[in-house]
Amino acid sequence: MHRKRCGKLSKTSPSSVSWQSLKSGPYTFRLGSATYLCSTKIYIMEHEFYAGLSIAIMGVYAVKKLGSGTAKFLDAEVAKSDAEMNAGRDMAIVEAKAKIVAGKIEQDRSLAMKMLFDAAKRENVVLQLEVCLQRSARQSFF
């Protein structure tokens, strides 16, 4: 089978056309079955069905129209409350780091004090030795 498309002849297989029409078959069957069930007394829809249907439609409409703006607003609020909650924790972390630095400084000071005491002890020993040497020198010359 040849078809004329934009001034050119093109071949199309007849089988592809028949499969195209069969794709809508299940949808047509579902629509026909739903119409049959709703038109007879087999499936009876009461006023609650229509109320639920209208609420569902309004819900979908609200989500489509207001969903993105509401999501942005709520994300901003959540971020703000997270920042408030984390502020105390962050402050405690900063204080703990400051205490660690102060503790290291105190350790360095205590090490320096120990070095000064050791130097003072050595100097005292040297002074005592000098005093002993002077006494022995005095005793030997007098």
Automatic annotation (TrEMBL):
<dbReference type="GO" id="GO:0005743">
    <property type="term" value="C:mitochondrial inner membrane"/>
</dbReference>
<comment type="similarity">
    <text>Belongs to the eukaryotic ATPase B chain family.</text>
</comment>
<keyword id="KW-0406">Ion transport</keyword>
<keyword id="KW-0472">Membrane</keyword>
<dbReference type="InterPro" id="IPR013837">
    <property type="entry name" value="ATP_synth_F0_suB"/>
</dbReference>
<dbReference type="InterPro" id="IPR008688">
    <property type="entry name" value="ATP_synth_Bsub_B/MI25"/>
</dbReference>
<dbReference type="Pfam" id="PF05405">
    <property type="entry name" value="Mt_ATP-synt_B"/>
</dbReference>
<dbReference type="GO" id="GO:0045259">
    <property type="term" value="C:proton-transporting ATP synthase complex"/>
</dbReference>
<dbReference type="GO" id="GO:0015078">
    <property type="term" value="F:proton transmembrane transporter activity"/>
</dbReference>
<comment type="function">
    <text>Subunit b, of the mitochondrial membrane ATP synthase complex (F(1)F(0) ATP synthase or Complex V) that produces ATP from ADP in the presence of a proton gradient across the membrane which is generated by electron transport complexes of the respiratory chain. ATP synthase complex consist of a soluble F(1) head domain - the catalytic core - and a membrane F(1) domain - the membrane proton channel. These two domains are linked by a central stalk rotating inside the F(1) region and a stationary peripheral stalk.</text>
</comment>
<comment type="subunit">
    <text>F-type ATPases have 2 components, CF(1) - the catalytic core - and CF(0) - the membrane proton channel. CF(1) and CF(0) have multiple subunits.</text>
</comment>
<keyword id="KW-0496">Mitochondrion</keyword>
<keyword id="KW-0999">Mitochondrion inner membrane</keyword>
<protein>
    <recommendedName>
        <fullName>ATP synthase subunit b</fullName>
    </recommendedName>
</protein>
<keyword id="KW-0375">Hydrogen ion transport</keyword>
<keyword id="KW-0813">Transport</keyword>
<keyword id="KW-0138">CF(0)</keyword>
<dbReference type="GO" id="GO:0015986">
    <property type="term" value="P:proton motive force-driven ATP synthesis"/>
</dbReference>
